[in-house]
Design goal:
single chain, alpha+beta, 5-stranded antiparallel beta sheet, 5-stranded mixed beta sheet, 21 helices, 28 strands
């Protein structure tokens, strides 16, 4: 190549693609395949303008990628674009379009929907070497900003004036704000000082509250001691007490112990908060000490059907603990595990790990939701909606355990899985370097505080107790129920409270006592109570949830409910009444008041019930009269219409027979078949009308003369007639002799014709059939039966057999009208009896019936 010769380069298809995609203007290359217009190439500028990806649009139709905006039905841009493309194809010339509003689908961070866009498009044909249009070059220019600016120009001018006015107004406001700033600073300084003063006051009140609780709790112990001591002395006298007096004293003693435990817990916590705890750490054989504490729960755990596992190996050294504090740690955690475990086991582990020991209490109980675990050691915090043996408790047990563990220089953590169980792990350092030397004492024996924990745990368990009732002059409440005692359903998770209320009510009512709301609901559904007495705080289902469940059940919603609650005050009472309770009684309550409230609510319920019954009886009577009148009209109409239909049906059958006899030789086989079908249809319709007339007659007419009827003779005559009509069939009739009954002879004949006729019909497929008619003896009264070995029926349809027009087989299989069994049932009911059926597919059927006005005669 010479120096002056022009250079030539051969561009590849890839070069052309890069050049096209890098074009500064937005371009699409489209195939002229109307109506799809497939996209085959796109420039980078177009992708940017439409916020699309090349891989998402190549190979797809133009109108599929860019559909119409459903929120803008008035736009015609999409249709205009299609017209322009088709014009290019038809006229083979470029087409320049005006400004078009064509919205672009949006996805991703900007959200789904369409973005408003304005375009200036042009469609240019690209010809092949043969002169055909190979592609269409679609060029667009985004003029959205221009259009929107032009549209908003008047608004901009108006807004400019508004801004000028706002600037003047703001200047005045800034001036005024500067004037007020000094005042605001002074006010802020005052409020900061006031807040500081209030915080100091709050701290003083908190300290006063802690001291108050500490002092009050301490003072409670003196009267409690004077209550527990004398009661214990009286109980120890033994034989001098009656069963009733002993029961009263034991109940008082158990609850005084529980109150003492609550007071001691509150006192301990108050002392810790006040920083006045005097711990005494002594070297302890922690394994044996812990074993002794845990073993005290053996009887309670065994009685609950659980397993208690203790895993403790001997330690190489003594561990310094405060005995009283360690007892409270162990007993609180064990009590907590027992309260929330209903099956499985409770495992206690004590491990020596280098410089610390681990005390672990693991249960297979209900578990704790993960979102509530961080709050578990907060004072007064209680896990919501958890299943437990009781809802009683102060809510500070675990908070106290955490503080006691901290006093030992240790820590506590909890892990839990719903419906699998909970694990509490206490870690305490070994040795004594971490303890205050002045609080380390020599080993000594102190009285155990375990008994109240064990006593309380035992009283969480269900169990029947003998409740002695003192002789009294109580009489039954007059007018509470019409016959017998009223039935009271009592729900309370405290056993002593259940026993106490039950003892009060038993002289007047029948009382069923349960320990939670769910058990109460099940008991109410099992046997309807006249009144429900319910506590509010109960496991499984609380009192308000119980009321809601009762009011939601149509069969239980009218039962009166009295709430027994420890929550006093108007707010609590209003809340209970709003929840649907009929009455609200605050604990502690007076026994006479409880009896009066129960009697009043029972009387009100009975009065309302009687009024409801009277209203229902009146409505039923009115409705019955209406139905009887309508029924008589329908039966009269049915009788009249059925009677009038018989004449034309006779004509159809008669003339069809005449045509066959007189002109049958002129008809082909198909014509004869048609006439036979006409005859069969008219005969079947006539039989149906006959059955309907009989059914109507049964409804309108009373029983004729009641006389002795030989059912055996009637059955034999009916069987003989069946054999005469179909002599080719081989059917054995087994009819019990001398079956004599009292009734209407004609109607009883209809019963046997229908039942034996069904047996005859449904054994027609058997070459050798057997039909039986006889009696069974049931409670000294005869039960008649008709039994066959025919096709039978599915027992699930037994109750539907006696419905009008009910058929279990097609007419082609077994002809019939579906009225016979209905007539049979009405006749038997008219005789004061009943009818039922049993069957099994391909193993036959048996129809049983009784006649209330009949009996076997010797």
């Amino acid at each position: 190549m010479g120096l002056n010769e022009p250079a030539t380069f051969a561009l590849s298809s890839e070069d052309f693609r890069l050049l096209f995609e890098s074009a500064p203007n937005p371009y699409l290359i489209i195939r002229p395949n109307t109506p799809v217009f497939t996209i085959v190439a796109v420039s980078d500028s177009y992708l940017k303008a439409t916020s699309t990806l090349r891989a998402d649009i190549i190979g797809r139709g133009l109108f599929e990628v860019f559909p119409a905006n459903p929120d803008d039905p008035a736009t015609t841009s999409l249709n205009d674009l299609r017209i322009s493309l088709e014009r290019v194809i038809q006229e083979c010339i470029p087409d320049m379009m005006g400004i078009q509003k064509y919205d672009i689908p949006q996805q991703g961070e900007e959200g789904d929907g369409f973005k408003v866009k304005y375009w200036s498009p042009a469609n240019i044909p690209v010809f092949s070497t043969e002169g055909d249009i190979a592609f269409i070059l679609h060029r667009v220019e985004d003029v959205t900003d221009f259009v929107l600016l032009r549209q908003s120009l008047p608004q901009v001018q108006e807004r400019t004036g508004q801004i000028e006015a706002e600037i003047l107004r703001n200047a005045q406001e800034v001036k005024e704000a500067n004037r007020q700033l000094k005042t605001a600073k002074e006010e802020l300084e005052y409020r900061e000082n006031e807040l500081k003063r209030l915080n100091e006051r709050l701290k003083e009140l908190d300290n006063s509250k802690t001291i108050f609780f500490s002092n009050v709790s301490h003072e409670f112990r003196t009267p409690l001691t004077l209550i527990l001591g004398p009661i214990q002395d009286i109980l120890s006298t033994g034989d001098a007490l009656s069963d009733t007096h002993r029961y009263h004293l034991e109940t008082a003693y158990h609850n005084a112990l529980r109150l003492q435990k609550l007071v001691n817990t509150l006192l301990d916590f108050s002392r810790i908060e006040a920083g006045r705890v005097q711990a005494s750490y002594q070297p302890t054989d922690l394994v044996n000490f812990t074993r002794e504490l845990v073993s005290m729960f053996d009887s309670a755990v065994e009685h609950a059907g659980l397993k208690l596992v203790i895993e403790c190996s001997p330690f190489p050294e003594m561990v310094y603990v405060d005995h009283d504090m360690w007892e409270k740690i162990v007993l609180n955690l064990l009590s907590n595990a027992f309260k929330h475990t209903f099956e499985g086991e409770i495992t206690v582990q004590l491990k020596h790990l280098k410089d610390h020991i681990e005390f672990v209490v693991r249960d297979t109980g209900v578990g704790i939701p993960s979102d509530q675990l961080p709050h578990l050691f907060e004072r007064f915090y209680r896990v919501a909606n958890t299943c437990s043996r009781t809802h009683e408790g102060s809510g500070i047990g675990l908070a106290l355990v955490q503080e006691l563990v901290k006093l030992h220089g240790g820590s506590i953590k909890v892990d839990s899985v719903i419906d699998q169980g909970t694990i509490f792990t206490v870690t305490i350092p070994t040795g004594k370097a971490h303890l205050d030397a002045s609080q380390i004492v020599a080993p000594s024996d102190l009285p155990s505080t375990a008994q109240p924990f064990v006593e309380e745990a035992l009283r969480w368990l269900p169990g029947e107790e003998h409740i002695p009732i003192s002789p009294n002059n109580h009489t039954a409440w007059p007018g509470v129920v019409s016959a017998g005692k009223a039935r009271i359903l009592l729900a309370d998770d405290n056993r002593d409270m259940r026993n106490y209320v039950q003892r009060l009510l038993e002289p007047y009512c029948t009382v069923e006592a349960v320990s939670d709301g769910l058990a109460a609901l099940e008991a109410a559904r099992r046997v309807l109570p006249d009144l429900v007495l319910s506590d509010v705080m109960m496991p499984k289902m609380n009192g308000f949830e119980l009321i809601d469940a009762l009011r939601s059940d149509p069969s239980l919603q009218k039962i009166p409910v009295i709430i027994l609650s420890a929550r006093a005050g108007e707010e609590a009472k209003v809340e209970g009444l709003k929840a649907g309770a009929d009455d609200y009684l605050v604990k502690p309550f007076n026994a006479r008041e409880l009896l009066a409230r129960v009697k009043t609510n029972l009387d009100l319920h009975r009065t309302r019930h009687q009024e409801t019954i009277k209203e229902l009886e009146k409505m039923v009577a009115e409705r019955t009269a209406e139905l009887q009148a309508v029924n008589q009209e329908l039966e009269a109409f049915s009788y009249s219409v059925s009677h009038d239909l018989r004449a034309p049906l006779r004509a159809i059958d008669g003339f069809s027979l005449a045509v066959i006899e007189d002109y049958g030789n002129l008809l082909d086989e198909q014509g004869k078949n048609y006439l036979q079908r006409i005859r069969q249809g008219s005969q079947q319709m006539a039989q149906l009308i006959e059955d309907m007339l009989n059914l109507s007659k049964l409804t309108r007419e009373e029983l004729n003369l009641i006389q002795s009827v030989n059912l055996s003779s009637l059955a034999q005559d009916i069987a003989a007639e069946f054999k005469r009509q179909e002599p080719e069939r081989r059917v054995e009739f087994n009819i019990q002799e001398n079956l004599i009954a009292k009734g209407d002879k004609y109607l009883l004949q209809v019963v046997l014709q229908n039942l034996l006729g069904n047996a005859w019909k449904f054994t027609s497929k058997h070459p050798q059939a057997c039909i039986k008619f006889g009696t069974l003896n049931q409670d000294g009264k005869p039960v008649y039966y008709v039994k066959d070995d025919g096709v039978g029926f599915d027992s699930a349809y037994a109750n539907k057999l006696f419905n009008v027009f009910q058929r279990l087989h097609t007419l082609k299989e077994f002809p019939g009208t579906g009225v016979g069994l209905v007539s049979t049932q009405r006749i038997i009911h008219r005789h004061g009896g009943k009818i039922w059926a049993e069957g099994e597919v391909e193993k036959g059927a048996t129809f049983y019936f009784t006649l209330g006005s009949s009996e076997l005669l010797e």
